[in-house]
């Protein structure tokens, strides 16, 4: 396992749903530890449990059984209000469909999480502009979403996820609506964020996206089937 300081620990996580008389087991005994500055893909087919795992990691859902520890907080024991506070403070979300407010500018969209945190207006603007500059869109801060390309809209969404300086970025199929060239640009941006110390978890069904990450967790039928980290190659003469 990686030697990074632990940010996330899942211990024997189960998530079940009742469908009439049937019990659906979406997650079944999941154990995962995720360290600071890791770059991870969670990959699986539709119905594998990867979306349920993302919802639990993102504090959007709670496990039926098991322990979830995030930055030392026992998340599985928190109230809804406390869950919301942890989610807003520690987690940045990136979605396939961007989820931007259509009548708000790029800058206003990026400022939204700071409004919820009650950051003063002048400071909100400065932090949002800094986040847009990080993703290369500072000059387009006044544009509405429909004035931006798909790749630019996703960059706005990434800036919005970054603006609160979260512990982790959770990206749900972040390139699903993008062409291959724009996908390469977004993945290159993720590489830069990793170099800057960010922790990123990408949930995907695409093997080529997962292969871009440094660690790949494969999930099927609610179980972790494999958890593999890439070992950096050592150039000849440096061993």
UniProtKB/TrEMBL annotation:
Pfam families (UniProt xref): ABC_tran
Entry coiled-coil feature ranges: none
Keyword Nucleotide-binding: yes
Residues of the ABC transporter domain: 8-239
InterPro entries (alphabetical): AAA+_ATPase, ABC_transporter-like_ATP-bd, ABC_transporter-like_CS, MacB-like_ATP-bd, P-loop_NTPase
Signal peptide residues on this chain, from the entry's feature table: none
Keywords for this protein: ATP-binding, Cell inner membrane, Cell membrane, Membrane, Nucleotide-binding, Transport
Protein family per UniProt: Belongs to the ABC transporter superfamily. Macrolide exporter (TC 3.A.1.122) family.
Protein name, as recorded: ABC transporter ATP-binding protein
Provenance organism: Temperatibacter marinus
